[in-house]
Structure formats: structure tokens, C-alpha cells
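Q: How would the C-alpha cells look for this protein?
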Amino acid sequence: YYIFPNAFEKVICKGNDHLRVARLLRDIGALELRDSELKENRLKTKERLPGSGRKYRQIYKIKGSILFESC
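A: Here is the predicted structure in C-alpha cell form.
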């Protein structure tokens, strides 16, 4: 899933600390980050999205497979 920072912070994490939620997602392997982003301790990645032209956008890229795995 590609999630814009504003939606992640104000809608998905409403009532919770968005940085803490993002760190938790990173720690369980649900955030897709490049090796360089992991080394820099980043939580967002840059991607080109359909409809945004050649421009790279900062987003949270979340793996759906991790979130919906059955235990």
C-alpha cells in the first residue's frame, strides 16, 4: 500500500503517535524501505506514483501481506 504522510499521520494513526506506529511497522518488516533508507533510520521512502509524472513523492510503503497474514 502507498500511503501519503498526511493520511498516515492524521487518519490512520489518529489518536496515536504516528512515529511510534511507523517504527513498529518497520520493526515487524511491514514497511518497504531501501537498504540506504534503513541505514539512515528513515520511515518513509521515495517512489514515483501513477499520475504524479516524473516527480518522486515521500510515502509510507506498507506490505499488505504482513498485515493480513494469519497467525
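The chain has a mean pLDDT of 91.

The longest strand covers residues 56-61.

Upvote if useful.
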